[in-house]
Amino acid sequence: MARLEVVPFSDEHLDGAAGLLAARHARHRETETLLPARYEDPAAAREEVERLWRAEGASGAAGLRGGRLVGYLFGARRKEPIWGENTWVEAGGHAVEDAGDVRDLYGFAAARWVEEGNPRHWALVPAHDAAVLDAWWRVSFGQQHAHGIQEVPAQTEVRVPEGFEIREPREEEIEELIDVDLALPSHQLRSPVFGGHGEVTRDDSRDEWLKTFAAGEEKILIGARDGRPVACWAFVPAEESRE
After folding, report:
1. What are the Cα distances from residue 119, in Å, to 77, 115, 159, 174?
2. 92-106 tens-digit pLDDT
3. Dihedral sign (CA 215, 216, 221, 227)
């Protein structure tokens, strides 16, 4: 196999990247059939690649063999303060023909990100591709989140154990809701995750809950044990989700 040439990603690589992403998506759909078929079309894939590439501060790497694009990887900063000085490689921000090329592409791109003051990096990687996952793990990434998709039957029988209930939250229990809200970020600040940036305070959480109750737009369910909130789920239409 010819040696990989790595150069900065630029507009001239968009068409080639679209073809790589469309091919990757087609392979992904063989495992996850509920994913939308439209991104198997390079034209639709190009729209997604270009949308991500136009994000403020985006930069990355393109991999060439014999002058042909065989892989790309780029990322940009998410502005939410919880992520700190970060760069995210979104789902459409990378695709390769050979999984091992991920390491060289990431090494090239990450050098710039760190020089620019963004040393904390995240990547969204298709779970079906064990070789690509292994390539990311070999450059010291680990798993923090998992995304899933499923069909929901028209009618589902729900059985809740005695002492538990599933219902909407109530504003008068906001202090208990804050306890639930802070459980995950507090855990992820500690070893072995070391995720996030700074600690989310009770005042921060209270402000968010008050805004949520006032807006009344987001669908939220809680799990309660003996009347006390112990779990929380939020639901939004897929079109409103950043992922």
Report:
1. 11, 8, 46, 35
2. 999 999 999 999 999
3. positive
